[in-house]
Amino acid sequence: VTAKDGAQTPVTPPANTTVDTSKITVEVDKLKNYSPSNGYKIVILDAGHGGSDPGAPGTDSNGVKRNEKDITLAITRLVRDKLEANGVWVIMTRDGDTYPTLTERPDLANSKDAALFVSIHVNSATTEQANGIEVYYAETNNHEYYNVSSQEVAKSVLSELINQTGARNRGVKTAQHAVTRRSIMPAILVETGFISNDAEIQKLVDSTYQNKLAEGIAKGILNNLWKINVPDRRELVEKLVAEEVGAAAAKEYMNEVWK
């Protein structure tokens, strides 16, 4: 369960442009401030919720209260370890019981010129029968400017997760989650199972099963990471702006704001 973030920052129109900037939602000024990855492929791992936001609650078979934030952090740390063992540069949005906002998480990925953003969550439903794994991506962030689309990554990660766990395959789905739609690189959100399901919560808090989940996510990432090419930032931002106002207007606008 992901809360909605605040309103977008309005774009300040440059003085000399004829472009209708009211149509531009790309946060160009923010995207100009980044550290070039210089050929490295950085993976951002985002453990859902944290700190004052516990995420979805559940109770295991021993009557112990469990929170989504703790399960996601445990799984995310395992994914990090597996990726780093394969030589991947990993940055985590949190590595403790803290709460980066839904804007700060993708902003970190964008500022680090990351190749991939993966947010890890635990699902919940009003019916105890709901079970299985599903992976989301944002339709507005499904371009192929990195040579791999968010949908491709989502399919690969889900396939590997099902292979590792044997869980019910709930499919790849689309949703405008703040963390995925605000990321400019391929971005997915993984729902690893239902904390509201009596059988699945026992698995989700089990270290052996968590390792299977982590193995699936890591393999799905590695399947795609070698194909990803991190584009030149200015060219990328111009393409993103062009999606909203057209190529000619985007070029004019970028010539004014990207000095």
General description of the model:
It is a single chain. With about 260 residues, the chain is of the alpha/beta class. Helix content is about 40%, strand content about 15%. A six-stranded mixed sheet has the order 4-1-5-8-6-7, with helices on both faces. A two-stranded antiparallel sheet has the order 2-3. α8 (about 235-245) crosses α9 (about 245-255). Mean pLDDT is about 95; it is low at about 1-5.
N/C terminus separation: 40 Å
The topology string of helices and strands comes to HEEEHEHEEHEHEHHHH
Helicity level: 25-40%
The tally of helices reads 9
Rough shape? elongated
Strand order of the largest sheet: 4-1-5-8-6-7
Average pLDDT, rounded to a whole number, is: 94
Cα-atom radius of gyration: 19 Å
The largest β sheet comes out as: 6 strands, mixed
Low-confidence stretches: 1-7
Number of distinct beta strands: 8
Overall structural class, as computed from helix and strand content, comes to: alpha/beta
Which range does the strand content fall in?
A: 15-25%
